[in-house]
Amino acid sequence: MEKIAVDLHIHSCLSPCGDEEMTPNNIVNMAIIKELDYIAVTDHNSAKNLPAVFEVVESLDEGICFLPGIEVTTKEEAHVLAYFKTVEQALELDAILYKRLPNILNKPELFGPQLILNSEDQVVGQVDKLLISATDIGISELCGLVNEIGGIIVPAHIDRKSYSIIASLGFVPPDLAIKTLEVSKQSDIEKVKKSYRFFRDYQFIHSSDAHQLMDIAEREYFLELADLQRETLLIWLGKEQTSC
After folding, report:
1. CATH of the domain at 172
2. What is the pLDDT of residue 240?
């Protein structure tokens, strides 16, 4: 088994709350400087910067690995991370999410721009709908959609008092085939585990939820994996998550 340094919740400048310096090259190179082994870029309700991040990772011989992801806002206003083996799978969910977002246009001067970049960090477009809106997809439906596409879900920052599955529902629905929960960077996993009895049924990960380069995790959060293959990481995160 290998000890793998991870940060599986990073936003690019596609997220309106993400700093404009959160470009594909800057994210990947900062992760390399911080000696991370695995990163996931998880923008709000969109995967449109994942192709560029993937190209940057593939062009470098630095040993860093990339897991495609999206941070979905469900209709319950819970943030849920969806992870996939391929960028194409993430883009498949992206197309569904865009249709299921309300027709509320982004106001860049208020919320920030939603920039789509290429692998050279050049702006090639913007998303018009406000990506921090809640979709009309419930948690159970999202779990089914993601599983059908071939991915797994991990409820995000479950220790927060807003935009988490616990804040929204008060519990993790037992009928969801979820094995992993994410806690915020500043939280102690052991203390979080003790806060609810049902948490003992889950495993936990720490992530940075970085919106600025400086917030990307140091080499501080580790998983023990047999190898660096995406499928290995997805199996660890999802375990037996095959249906919801």
Report:
1. 3.20.20.140
2. 54
